[in-house]
Design brief:
alpha/beta, six-stranded mixed beta sheet, about 20% strand
């Protein structure tokens, strides 16, 4: 299962957001730095109304959603790349995740201590980004030292790798994350020898107060974060009130929905964040059903039908014959597989078929 790491300065609302995501109070969320030391892990179901529709069409009660894992990581401070605060732990934990969710405080509250003494979201982003960049530069320099002997022997592979490493060093020295450097396929293969923190897909969360939710653009801090994220990281920003979302844990789904609507909000920030993270990881959902359940499964974008079959069971991939496939929207319009067959919408796909988001699939295999 892919992991998304929640990072940021201390006291920006990471653990509060994590608790809201997993719908429990697993992580301590206190008003002091380094409240979180060891990372908290939680599996989060991905909300998908298509699963509910499929279950009704199939006439089954059991619904099994797909999921991703979120990791609440200790807060970072200046000098983390040199071991300050919990820097070494922070960096080791972030290396283990597949994507970075950087939480940025965009609300004023005298009762919640800010480690820098004042509210400045762009400064906070810069602190985190700089420490990740410095850690990456150190990793690149260590790799350059390792291949230095091969360079002296004029090894062609080492020379090609050194050119890519130097490109990355220059890019990072300019304060830009590695994932914004354009590299062609061969260069990316060479760059993969050094797994970089700033090469991980990134998403920003603007943590606001309750009054900002209905019109987040009116909050200048949110607007600045959104502009910065687009310009410097080429990524999105999700607006969330972590405190409110955490408080909604104690309410039922209907009550929570009514309260959000009373604030002028249709979709909760946590749900929006889950969907944004799913897209960030370039994941796709396909569905299966039988006499007892309807289930959602996850594949990476571009994965073929046999790989999707392997998500269910390795025998399905090993003995793959074909995939009987229909898009969920088409199935819903037809009302049943039988009607879909009559209308020629139920397809037979082979080994080269790339699974599309929303596909409903029945795999044929033989072992």
């Amino acid at each position: 299962m892919l992991k998304a790491g929640i990072v940021g300065l201390p006291n920006v609302g990471k653990s509060t957001l994590f608790n809201a995501l997993i719908h429990a109070r697993k992580a301590a969320a206190e008003n002091f730095p380094f409240c979180t030391i060891e990372p908290n892990l939680g599996v989060v179901h991905v909300p998908d109304p298509r699963l509910e529709k499929l279950a009704k069409l199939a006439g089954v009660e059991r619904r099994v959603p797909t999921a991703i894992e979120f990791v609440d990581i200790a807060g970072l401070v200046c000098g983390a790349s040199q071991g300050e605060g919990l820097g070494n732990q922070f960096l080791s934990h972030i290396r283990e995740v597949d994507a970075i969710i950087q939480v940025v405080r965009c609300f004023e509250d005298e009762d919640v201590h800010h480690v820098a003494g004042s509210l400045d979201p762009l400064r906070d982003i810069s602190i985190v980004s700089t420490e990740l960049i410095l850690a990456d530069l150190e990793s690149l320099r260590k790799r350059q030292e390792r291949i230095s002997r091969d360079l002296k022997r004029h090894d062609k592979h080492a020379e090609a790798e050194e050119r890519v490493l130097e490109k990355l060093v220059q890019h990072l020295d300019g304060g830009r994350p590695a994932n914004t450097l354009a590299l062609h396929h061969e260069e990316r293969v060479l760059a993969a020898t050094v797994p970089l923190l700033t090469d991980k897909p990134t998403l920003f969360v603007a943590n606001v107060d309750e009054g900002t939710l209905a019109a987040p653009q009116a909050n200048p801090h949110v607007a600045r974060v959104q502009e910065y994220a687009r310009a410097h990281h080429a990524c999105d920003t999700v607006v969330v009130c972590a405190k409110l979302e955490s408080d909604l844990i104690d309410l039922g789904p209907e009550e929570a929905g009514e309260y959000l609507r009373s604030l002028g909000v249709e979709e909760g920030g946590v749900e929006a964040l889950i969907h944004a993270t799913y897209r960030l990881l370039k994941l796709r959902t396909f569905f299966t059903f039988n006499d007892t359940e309807a289930r959602a499964w996850t594949v990476r974008a571009g994965e073929t039908a046999p790989r999707a079959a392997g998500r269910i069971h390795t025998d399905f991939e090993r003995g793959f014959i074909k995939a009987e496939t229909i898009g969920m929207a088409d199935l819903e319009a037809c009302g049943s597989i039988a009607h879909a067959r009559e209308r020629g919408l139920y397809r037979m796909e082979g080994k080269d078929y790339e699974v599309k988001d929303g596909d409903v699939i029945h795999f044929k295999f033989h072992v």
